[in-house]
User: Fold this.
Amino acid sequence: MNYTFLDFLTLIGSLGLFLFGMKMMSEALQRVAGSKMRNILASMTSNRFFGVLTGFLVTAIIQSSSATTVMVVSFVNAGLLNLTQSIGVIMGANIGTTVTGWLISLLGFKVKISAYALPLIGISLPLIFSKKTKRKTWGEFIIGFALLFMGLEELKGSVPNLKANPEILSFLQNYTDLGFGSILIFLAIGTVLTIIIQSSSATMALTFVMCNQGWIPFELAAAMIMGENIGTTITANLAASVGNTSAKQAAFVHFLFNILGVLWMLVVFRPFVHFIDTLVTNHGGISPSEDPAAIPIALSVFHTSFNVINTLIFIWFIPVFKILVEKIIPAKDDDEEEFRLEYITTGLLSTPELSLFQAKKEVQFYAKHTKKMFGFIRKLIHTHDDAKFTKLFAKIEKYERISDEVEVEIANYLSLVNQSKLSDTGRRQVRAIMKLVSDLESIGDSNYNLARTINRMRERKVKFTPEVMKKLELMFDLVEESLSVMCDNLNEESYNINFRKAQEIEAEINAYRNQLKSEHLDNIRNNVYTYDTGIIFNDLFSECEKLADYVINVSEALHEVYNN
Assistant:
């Protein structure tokens, strides 16, 4: 079998297609998912058992645990699932992938989702050219989903075709009589083959072929199956390589869960294999140790039993997995903290007061991220490296999109709360929170406008003098102080709101804006700086003053509700 450099480039291109599809799907999810999909996912994964069931059903339907875990990683990356919810889904995916083994062993075929990739792109084509943003985003999501499967399929086809040439591996029968060493060797072979072929199902089919040829016994085939469980985790980790820290953590959970499952199984491996042999024989089957043709069924029983027991053991340790993975892959200092709904995850709580308290906590979390977004702006204007600038600007864009979604979801939740039996004070609080949530979203918009202005400044190669930069930094300091007071007021209980401080900073910002405006006109007339520089400078300090107006609106809403 010849494997040329062109074949190698095809392999790299397939990997690129897969990663691009993953990235496109993840980004589209952030814009298209909205509250409905997030609520469905949240309800389906509201506890660990539902999460496992969700993972099992999705994998059983699409016939690929790799695709399921990749989608889970993209959901985590898009902020639709948190790490805890994703762990249950990943466990369920491991059980769901055993359905493929049963299809291969009983029916001899496997459904290929990739066959529907081009029709999906055909469906999405009119959406891509739609003038409506929502339809266009749906088209991008569908294309990303299709490219993801096309990439997976191309990865399988662009490696040396081991599946079509199983005789290449006939030498392996020389390593079948080394005792426990043979088990470890075939465990490693199963892992490596799955990493190369990018499909545990394809490796499983290859294992069945090897068994039918009589090259390896049932025991070593079972060891290969365990190796496939480890190897299949590489797909999710590849997907997570273009994701954020939480996506990388979710992918690593998949690896950790599978590797720990294999380790405990190795301890009881031979007794367990003997138990499967006995189980198959006692139920009217032929012993896999006597007839190679019986091995596929026995392997399916082994695979299913192993993953079900694995899940039943580790499902109780999901919080431990979360803590462990966060220690192994900690968030970097410069990495964004996840911006998503933190407290409103399912329906209303038992009483309207508790639901209102939950909404207040969510608003506090929301405000914290609008302030953090302004911190990104301050960092952006001092970022000169192109790659770092692009990454930070993309982060601000992402926060602005999520800010829009969070506003809608909090408002929808408050509308439901308002339909409950609330006290007069409670209803005033709901009205105030709905108003200030709109202002928080406007703060996010202003932050994004500042980022776009800084980007325009970079594109036009505008440079501020140290004196102009000093004046702008003073405005930034005032705005950041106003955001800090806003967050403090949101975190305080009723009568502790420092409304006077908020008013003082707002007045100071307005006065300083007027001063800069007056100086700006003089500087243009006196050619202190160019017209382009002056326009950018004016846009920045004017937008800062506009942002501060939304900030004071939040404190005014709080003051109104607690002082009437």
DSSP finds 22 helices and no strands in the chain. Residues 34-38 have pLDDT under 50 and may be disordered. Residues 5-328 form one domain.
